[in-house]
Amino acid sequence: HYSLDNNEINSEKNIEDKVKELFDYGNKFEKEILLKFKESKNVFDCEELGKKSIYDTISAMKSGYDVIYQGHLKKNMWEGFADFLVKVDGKSNLGDFHYTVKDTKLSGIVKSKFILQLCVYAEMLEEIQGILPESVFIILGTGEEKEFKIHEYYNFYKEKKNQFLKFHSELSDMPIPDKNINHGEWDSYAKKILLNKNDVSLITTITKQQINCCRKNGINNINDLINSEKITGINSDRLENLKKQAIVQIKSNESSIEFDVLPHSEESPRGLYEVPDKNNNDLFFNIEQSEFAYE
Questions:
Q1: Beta strand spans in 9-77 (E)
Q2: Whether pTM exceeds 0.85
């Protein structure tokens, strides 16, 4: 959402070899289905003909081609390219026929998101031909073709679509990313946001509950926490340890790592203080031995 609103926000999208391999395999499977259609149907191949605009697709639909490959569909802000638009009987704005959608998927099973995608295509088709297709189809990686009656899923799709639009319409300020979540291609950008804000969640030993307590008390960055005398929900001893940890982190940088041994209670030892005393029977296993360790 924010990348579309702000050109300065760029993802680090990188198609890894495995993903590219799957993409190529999916494209190969799609082409195999296309060849089967071409054996017995009058096919308008938008990709081969270089006719990829919405107007080319509408023109092909009006001409009554049996199959339209990679047809461009659009309605308001929504648009996409359907794998196959297939002509079926039934009156529409086009005449005594209309189009349905057949989409190829490498998966061996049907997933709910596949059906939602087909509902989007069906709604965009309705914009052109005046009616929804009665059924839509998924061609699975096994070669099996599955049929889905639109009326059984369309209300659910509309509800999910409205929720999606409502969510994006209500977004205003950039939300603070959760440091414990992998943000995919936006992961580096999410970390950059936290670093720029000097966010309180970056304190190494802080818990999620303590982060929430800080935010509820208006403590959003590390300096706020260091300067705070009291934070409701965090006891004083724990707050002092968080402050000391935060100070150590601030003193550290890329070229110099600061550390300090925090005090502990003899009754409740923590961390390295829990290591038992040295014993002649101790066994050490070092999997990161350095050749320079004893120089």
A1: 43-45, 67-75
A2: no
